[in-house]
Every structure is written in C-alpha cells, then in structure tokens.
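Support reply, case 0932

Customer input (verbatim):
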Amino acid sequence: MRIGVDFGTTRTTIACVDRGNYPMVSFEDESGDLHDYIPSVAALDGNHLVFGHEAERLASDGAAHLRSFKRLLADAGVTPSTTVRLARRDIGLVDLLTRFLAHVAQLVRESSSVATVPADEPLEAVVGVPAHAHSGQRFLTMEAFRAAGWNVLSMVNEPSAAGFEYTHRHSGTLNSRRTKVLVYDLGGGTFDASLVVADGVDHEVLASRGNNLLGGDDFDLVLARLALRSAGLSPADLGDEGWDTLVHQCRLVKESLTPQSRFATIDVQGSPVILPVRDYYEEVRPLVDSTLETMTPLLDLDAQGASKLAADVAGLYVVGGGAELPAVARILRDAHGRRVHRSPHPAASTAIGLAIAADPAAAYTLRDTLSRGVGVFREAESGDLVSFDPLLEPDLVLARGEDVHVVRRYRAAHNVGWFRFVEYSRTDSDGVPRGDVIPCGEVFMPFDRQLQGAQVDLSRVEVVRTEDGPLVEERYTVDRNGIVTVEIVDVETGWSVGRNLGKL
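Our regenerated output:
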C-alpha cells in the first residue's frame, strides 16, 4: 500500500492512494470511535510506554506523558543520543520516535479504515518534513521511520506536498498569467512558506522560508497565559502537572473556535474563566505577524514599499493545523485580499499531498530547494585565521529522485584541514552566515601524507602552511531527502575522510 504520512507535532495524519483518490485514513480509539488522526502523544501505563489515543486518555487521567516530542527534533543540538525525561526516567528521543511510528504502522494494519492491508504487504510511504528542517532533523526522522518498519519512498518538504494538494484541488485557479502558489503552512510546532510554480503536474519550488520554533503550540501557550492573567494566577501556582493540563485544555478550546465565536471558557483550578475571543486574537497577533515577516522574501513590494503577492501568484494557500484558527486567515486576508485560500482540510492537506507524491499514476514531479545553505569554516593563514566558505546556497534546486553533486578541487595549503560545517539561512554583505546558524559536523583531513593513516589526534596537531600540498577534492552530495554528505579526498593517494552532515 502506498500512503502519505504527515508526522505532526500534535497529530499524525495519513492519506492513502486509492485509484486516483487520496482519502484520509481513519483510526479507532479504545471506544470504537473513529478519528482521522493519531495524537502524537506518549504516556506511561505503569512501566509500559503507550502512544496515540490510549496515551491521550491516560494523559487526561493524570498519567505521566509527553506531547509535541517532534518539536525536539528542531533543536540545533539534537543528536542520536539525545534523551527526553518522562517520570524521572530518560528515554532516547530516536527510540521514542521509532516506537511511536511503529505504533502508527500497527494501527494502519490493525485498526484503521484500511486495516485489510496484509501483514506481508509493505507500507510504502512518502513522509513529510518541515521545509526549514536541518540535516540532523531530516536524518533522525528518516532513521526513525525506517527502524519502525516503514518502506520510505522519499521525504518531501511539507509545504511542497501542500502545493500538490492545491493543484489537485484548485487547478482551475492556475492559468498562463498566474502560475504560482504561495503555501503558508502553520503546523503545531513549525511554520514554513514555499513559493511554488505549477504547470499541470510539474512543480518547482522557487524558494522556501521558515521558523522551526513557531507553531500552534505557541498559540496554546498564549491562551493559557491569558487565562491565568485573568484569574490572577501564574504558572507557578498550578505546578507542572496543572500547567500542562491547562495548556492542553487551551489547545482544545483554541481548536473549537469558529469565525462566529465571541467568548472562550477555560477552567482554571475549578473556576471558569470567560475570555473575549477578540482579546485572545490581539494577544496572538504578534505570532501571526512573525509568520508574515518570515514570508516577506517570497513577496513583491508595491510602490509604497509594502509586501504584496506578486501578480503571477494564483493564491496564498493556508494549511496546517495551526492555521485552523480563524484569526490567521483573517489577518492574511487583511494583508493580501481575496487571493487567500484556506484548505478545506488544513490539518490534512500535507498528508493528501504526500499521498499524491506516492502515487506513480498521478505523475506529479517536483523540483524543490535545499531551504538551508551549507557552508564551512576552514583554516586560513597557518591556522591563525578562520574563513567562512559558502558551499551550497539556501535556494539550491533539487530534482525529486535525483542527487545533487558539487565538487571543489584545489591544492592544499596546510598540513591539516579542520572543516567545521554549518547550516545557515542567510549571509550578510560580507558573506558571514547570520540568522539561524546550526553546526552540523566537523571533519579533520590530514593533507600531510605522513599523517595519513597515523594513529594521531589531528585536533592536537599544529596547523602550519605548506608548499606544494596535495591535490584535494571536496565532494558534496545532497540526496533526494535533502541530507548532505561530504567526502574530502587526496586525489593522488586516494586517502579520504567523510561524513553524513545530518548524523551528528
């Protein structure tokens, strides 16, 4: 079976390929009720770790639990050994992700609307990842899916997948004058925006921007703080468990708001707090404005210097669970007018697009971008200085299903090369990386042939300038999932070192 899996911060959604249709997969909870999602929640049942709807029920009953653990992947310091704390026990983050995704696979086979999948039939999936995800985040996500038993066909940036869903659903809005769609994807833990050119089933992402630390979870926190302020309390008055319960309640209240909602009622320590919805919308306005600022490089400027949709953009497509909040579409329409379209299924748009990508008969093609640049700090002036060298630009175009190769060749000028790789979102006028800069690994390369194969700690070797150094090639590969690997080779001896920049 071919499916699209949107592993979300608060909910995981799945769509399947069914003869040109892409229905959502529904799942039974313990009461036999159907839901078109699986809560991305883990909880302890005694000493046993459970997930999904059962974990949600246990969490509601006061069991120790974890929510939004996908968001931990966005931390620049995440590694395969990163742990999370649950009820005074440490759990490996990758192990937690793997077990959750194995649970999802089990539900697909045993208690879902497609539960007739034979046990020996592979679950072939295209999986989503935030467009602004760093290499480590992509690598760990891929590893967790594979370890959980999924046959991963490819990894697609979430807003790019939503672009597929847009053209599948709204192809009539695209014409010879308006060939682009700007996808605004506000999920539970991240925000991404991508400018996509669509020509029938052929798609090309021109550029992407994002914020890995902004999502629907932050809107929940705003409502919780507003409720506490109205009650004259602080988070410390509730304790950790009480605060977590309040935030979860605020998430449910937020998700129940409609354009007609005027008041929201929240229980704070047994007393109802009634808040005008307009007050809440005023409080979250800075968060929405932040997404607009992030998206600005994808827009044009009018005569007064204000940002606007370019004339050739058919629509601003609003997707993601966080975008279900009525205030989001309202603010976007105030800024960009009638070309703002909210997906009829904001939380499912990405999963549907991923299923389209998994369907060979749909024949959709995608040329995406790297979204983050990759560069290296390397030795200069006999090790007295460090220079920055941008290697892969943030908007490097990637063809779906194909690797991109970049090769650099030069004569080494030092006895040892110390390469400190980073991912970055932009550089300043001097070429120095700015904004979101994330270390993604380092490599020591012995250019001095007496050091090649020697049992020596290269980090302790004094860097000196040499004459007539070896001919060196730096080989960079970006695979179809956006994961970057590097190999540094002494062309004449064949000695090489390398690493996957996502595998910290």
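We compared this against your earlier run and they match. Two observations from our side: The longest helix spans residues 235-256. The chain has a mean pLDDT of 90. Please reopen the case if you see a mismatch on your end.
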